[in-house]
């Protein structure tokens, strides 16, 4: 069930009606029950049988949390065994459904090359939507309980709500238990400033998705495969820019809608995007792009691996490993791993060069920092080519076209399609100006006027495409 669908509108209206009636009472379990039921309908709309996977993950982690809460911290070995059982279940389900075919294809290719045997049959299972997101959320709960950062829940229903809360169930933001669960028992009184903030987020989210991302996708889908062959540098660079805008508008649009829906239901979800294309370093890019995933990888993978506490070489290796795994998290294909590897090498090189110090001293260093910011965004753009392409060789051919330095005028149709990049550029520029306090945030009147304009554009420029890119992850 997509946010851009009639069944979802009906589902949300029913839940919102419960929010302004049952949610206003102190009898919190009634509204929690409605939210849990809505999450089950929302997720089961895709494949009802996959609700069993969701129940399996949540049940295992709930029981693991209870066990960890009862075991004294002195029972280290037993506590680690409980944690390992929880993580193994979650990662095992994720690996089986998401990476099973990749492993079989890879083994089949190796066996065919060495022993000249036919390729192995693949599983061909439909990927459960959102499995990467809710698996990470479930794992974070168990790890936090193990570390003593969060108390174990005694009741199953609030925990299942934490995982199945439908605004963020299939594509994030990746929420942590300590961010979400303290909000569950609150009385849901309707506060108009919060309501209008939610409406603003939903409006901007649909505008980014329906107007910008979907219309940019029309050009990207039409021309991308053709650019694996010979094409001029201008067209290849234009197409890469179009996809960079599409994936931002698509995923940031989803995140805004999710946060806005949560606001209307009386919950707050964390910020997931903060104008990543104004980042002046790779570190800052990952502080702005998919923020909740970046925090998860940092706190539950990079830091446990040793972070930057065990020498320079170990730090560089940790950065590369984390980003390679981050790329693999995005999809069961080697071109996603290559995308993560590009960012991992870039982060390690940035740390080795001490780029962070360039902005703090002389004008020469500031000039170098400005030049480096251009280098960062160029590298991010090239990395998107590997993310979007269907293989590493095709991504390399596409990238080679960009660096042929064969610049020719764009056709009129391409120039016209570029108009859908303009709102994305304006959003980034406005965020950049606000951060430097050169302009003030929009007034309520300006927001209302812009909301009306964006709503009109969304209704008139709807292309009929509604799938979100990150639903496949």
Which keywords apply here?
473 residues; mainly alpha; 2 domains; globular
Percent of residues in helices: 55-70%
* Count of distinct strands: 0
Query: Gyration radius, to the nearest Å?
Result: 23 Å
Low-pLDDT runs of 5+ residues are: none
Number of helices: 18
Percentage of β-strand residues: under 5%
**Structural class computed from helices and strand pairing:** mainly alpha
**String of helices and strands:** HHHHHHHHHHHHHHHHHH
Largest sheet: none
Principal-axes geometry comes out as: globular
Question: How is this fold's topology laid out?
Answer:
Elements lengths: L5 H14 L8 H17 L6 H20 L5 H40 L15 H17 L8 H9 L12 H4 L11 H32 L9 H32 L17 H7 L2 H12 L9 H19 L3 H20 L9 H26 L3 H11 L9 H6 L4 H14 L8 H17 L13
Helix pairs in contact: 1-2, 2-6, 3-4, 3-5, 3-6, 4-5, 8-9, 8-18, 9-14, 9-15, 11-12, 12-13, 13-14, 14-15
Describe the structure.
- The chain has 473 residues and is mainly alpha-helical.
- It has 18 helices and no strands.
- The longest helix is centred in the N-terminal third of the chain and has 40 residues.
- The mean pLDDT is 88.
Give a concise summary.
With 473 residues, the chain is mainly alpha-helical. It has helices at residues 6-19, 28-44, 51-70, 76-115, 131-147, 156-164, 177-180, 192-223, 233-264, 282-288, 291-302, 312-330, 334-353, 363-388, 392-402, 412-417, 422-435, 444-460.
């Amino acid at each position: 069930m997509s946010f851009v669908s009639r069944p979802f509108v009906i589902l949300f209206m029913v839940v919102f009606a419960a929010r302004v009636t049952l949610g206003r009472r102190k009898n919190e379990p009634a509204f929690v029950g409605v939210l849990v039921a809505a999450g089950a309908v929302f997720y089961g709309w895709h494949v009802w049988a996959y609700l069993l996977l969701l129940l399996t993950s949540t049940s295992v982690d709930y029981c693991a949390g209870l066990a960890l809460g009862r075991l004294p911290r002195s029972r280290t070995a037993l506590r680690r065994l409980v944690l390992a059982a929880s993580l193994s279940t979650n990662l095992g389900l994720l690996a089986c459904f998401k990476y099973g075919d990749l492993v079989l294809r890879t083994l089949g290719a190796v066996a065919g090359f060495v022993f000249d045997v036919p390729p192995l049959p693949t599983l061909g299972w439909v990927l459960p939507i959102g499995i990467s997101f809710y698996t990470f959320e479930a794992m974070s709960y168990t790890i936090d309980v193990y570390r003593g950062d969060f108390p174990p829940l005694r009741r199953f229903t609030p925990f299942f709500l934490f995982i199945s809360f439908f605004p963020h169930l299939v594509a994030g933001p990746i929420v942590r238990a300590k961010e979400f669960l303290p909000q569950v028992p609150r009385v849901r009184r309707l506060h108009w400033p919060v309501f209008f903030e939610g409406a603003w987020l939903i409006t901007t989210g649909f505008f980014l998705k329906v107007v910008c991302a979907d219309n940019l996708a029309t050009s990207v889908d039409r021309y991308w495969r053709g650019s694996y062959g010979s094409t001029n540098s201008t067209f290849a660079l234009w197409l890469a820019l179009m996809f960079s805008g599409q994936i931002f508008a698509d995923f940031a649009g989803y995140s805004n809608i999710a946060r806005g829906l949560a606001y209307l239901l009386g919950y707050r979800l964390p910020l997931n995007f903060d104008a990543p294309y104004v980042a002046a370093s790779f570190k800052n890019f990952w502080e702005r792009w998919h923020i909740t995933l970046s925090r998860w990888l940092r706190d539950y993978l990079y830091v446990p691996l040793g972070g930057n506490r065990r020498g320079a070489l170990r730090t560089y290796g940790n950065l590369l490993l984390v980003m390679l795994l981050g790329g693999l998290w995005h999809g069961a294909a080697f071109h996603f791993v290559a995308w993560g590897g590009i960012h991992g090498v870039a982060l390690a090189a940035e740390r080795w060069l001490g780029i962070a110090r360039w902005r703090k001293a002389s004008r020469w260093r500031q000039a170098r920092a400005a030049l480096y910011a251009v280098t960062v965004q160029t590298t991010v753009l090239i990395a998107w080519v590997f993310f979007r392409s269907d293989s590493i060789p095709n991504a390399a051919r596409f990238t080679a076209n960009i660096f042929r330095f064969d610049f020719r005028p764009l056709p009129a149709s391409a120039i016209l399609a570029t108009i859908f990049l303009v709102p994305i550029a304006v959003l980034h520029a406005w965020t950049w100006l606000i951060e430097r306090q050169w302009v003030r945030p929009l007034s309520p009147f300006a927001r209302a006027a812009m909301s009306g304009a964006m709503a009109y554009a969304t209704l008139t420029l709807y292309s009929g495409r509604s799938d979100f890119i990150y639903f496949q992850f």
